[in-house]
Design goal:
The chain is α/β, with parallel strands linked by helices and about 350 residues long. It has 13 helices and 10 strands. The chain folds into 2 domains: about 190 residues, NAD(P)-binding Rossmann-like Domain (Rossmann fold, 3-Layer(aba) Sandwich); about 140 residues, N-(1-d-carboxylethyl)-l-norvaline Dehydrogenase, domain 2 (Orthogonal Bundle), CATH 1.10.1040.10. Helix 6 runs antiparallel to helix 8 and helix 6 crosses helix 12.
Length: about 350
């Protein structure tokens, strides 16, 4: 049975601030939290470790557009301490998501939306999406934990086009870009989305609403797909990868294979392969988040960024040989480091069977 659609209530009634909780106050979540708090909204964050300690003792700091913002936010490692919210933004990495979603219950009022500000293919990608409605990718939700969370009517997609990092606990540094795209999986332009867009825009966050959030997810993914795993394998930055002929050819082939897969599902690449690699390469000196995660010993997001595209190719009957090779190399390297579970893929005998 289809779940109820999004609420028609705005999250920002006229004349009132938003009570907002950011779950995962790292580089992206911390950026949103600091600007929303500075704008006068009631902001809390869920964080942990030294980052949590620093936020509690000295506020959440953000270096943005030549100034240092120090935002007073309520911070906890337990959502139960924060109470029901007008809106919850989940900004954790995909490997953490199954453990995070069950913790959200204390934050949810009767109509609280959950905004998923994450990279890769989300578990709700095909909800209400034409003939593919209800498709679930095992590479994204292998044990069904995300599906069991339910609350589909609360979910709002968010595509991230921004580069930030955390140079020290409690401090977020904005580097490049400032663009977020929000949308309902069912394609409606709801009041809760437009209300959040208005509030975030007034806070200095570059944000827009879309009726085609799956398309925006796909366009972003086509940039992450080549740069993320190859940066982890090579240890290189975006402009060097895009400017190295052999690596560039590899990334162009990955893009073209994924673009063919996407067309099967009604997803357009949005630009040519050359233009997309040029765009990623224009971020001179930029380290992908996947490379940063690998170098800092954190689990890597290979499933939602790379492996999900391979599964979509299998469903569509479209071969993705270049993506397969790059995935295998990245997965093996991450598995050796203890940051990813990888069994080496099916044997030829199993494939033949």
């Amino acid at each position: 049975m289809r779940c109820a659609g999004p609420s028609t209530r705005s999250i920002r009634p006229t004349g009132r601030s938003v009570k907002l909780c950011i779950v995962g106050a790292g580089s992206i979540g911390g950026f949103i939290a600091a600007l929303m708090a500075e704008a006068g909204h009631e902001v809390s964050v869920v964080a942990r470790g030294a980052h949590l300690d620093a936020i509690r003792s000295g506020g959440l700091r953000l270096d943005f557009e030549g100034r240092r913002i120090t935002a007073a936010v309520e911070a906890s490692d337990d959502p139960a301490n924060l109470g029901p919210q007008d809106c919850v933004i989940v900004a954790v990495k995909a490997p953490s998501l199954p453990g995070v979603l069950p913790m959200l219950k204390p934050l949810l009022g009767s109509e609280t939306p959950i905004v998923t500000a994450m990279n890769g293919i989300p578990w709700w990608m095909f909800d209400g999406f034409g003939e593919h409605d209800g498709l679930t990718l095992r590479t994204v939700d292998g044990d069904g934990a995300l599906a069991r969370f339910g609350n589909r009517e609360r979910l709002v997609g968010c595509v991230i086009h921004i580069a930030c990092d955390v140079p020290e606990p409690g401090l977020i540094r904005h580097n490049k870009l400032n663009r977020f795209i929000l949308g309902e999986p069912d394609g409606t332009l709801s009041l809760r989305v437009t209300g959040l867009v208005d509030a975030m825009t007034a806070a200095g966050i570059g944000v827009e609403a879309t009726a085609r959030i799956q398309q925006e997810v796909w366009i972003k993914l086509l940039g992450n797909l080549p740069f993320a795993p190859i940066s982890m394998i090579t240890g290189e930055i975006n402009d060097i990868m895009a400017g190295t002929p052999d690596i560039r050819r590899l990334m162009l082939d990955m893009f073209e294979e994924a673009a063919a897969v996407g067309r099967h599902f009604g997803l357009d690449p949005g630009m040519t392969a050359e233009a997309r690699i040029d765009l990623g390469g224009s971020l001179a000196g930029f380290k992908t988040s996947t490379r940063q995660d690998f170098e800092q010993g954190r689990p890597v997001e290979l499933d939602v960024i790379v492996n999900a595209v391979r599964e979509m190719g299998d469903i569509a009957g479209i071969d993705t040989p270049t993506i397969d090779i790059v995935y295998a190399l990245a997965a093996q390297k991450a598995a050796i480091a203890g940051l990813y579970r990888y069994d080496g893929g099916p044997s030829e005998e199993n494939e033949a069977a």
